[in-house]
């Protein structure tokens, strides 16, 4: 058996230079954004990271889900976005509206949002800050990062801990039975779209009378 170290692909100096250039350009882009008084909440201010299984919704879908969340939460309502950063960003664009929002997300780039950001790893569904009280959110919007029952089941623990009752889940159409089993949610007519086409058909599920039908 070959020595494991030898199996690690080494980047050629050419590839390394290209990579460094890419990072440099990215940093410059970031720098430009800040200097131009860039709106840090707009979609695309943080780009999707496929390695974290992130896929942003289309602008229209994100707006629609954000609007639904605000209506469902009611005046002065509290909204939690679990692994659904593009909805969170849309909610932030509606600043001054009468609601508050938290984002639970594995991607630490979202820590730019300060206190509203809560680091979240679905493998540890209840490993949450003490100040995040049980059943303290009027609605929880969640988009589990993987289409697996294990991921849904663990994310469901978090959702059930956070919500006072209302749940808006976005996941694959193939998860319909598991979604009903773990969260008691039903599929809506509304079909969420992503900014890039995903291979799996995606759907929304709710457990209350929503505007998504």
Automatic annotation (TrEMBL):
It comes from the Eukaryota. Keywords: Cytoplasm, Methyltransferase, Transferase. It catalyses: L-lysyl-[protein] + 3 S-adenosyl-L-methionine = N(6),N(6),N(6)-trimethyl-L-lysyl-[protein] + 3 S-adenosyl-L-homocysteine + 3 H(+). It is found in: Cytoplasm. PROSITE patterns: N6_MTASE. The keyword NAD does not apply. One of its GO terms (cellular component) is cytoplasm. The keyword Cytoplasm applies. Pfam families: N6-adenineMlase. One of its GO terms (biological process) is methylation. Its main location: cytoplasm. One of its GO terms (molecular function) is nucleic acid binding. This is EFMT1 methyltransferase. It comes from Emberiza fucata. The lineage of its organism: Eukaryota, Metazoa, Chordata, Craniata, Vertebrata. The gene is Eef1akmt1.
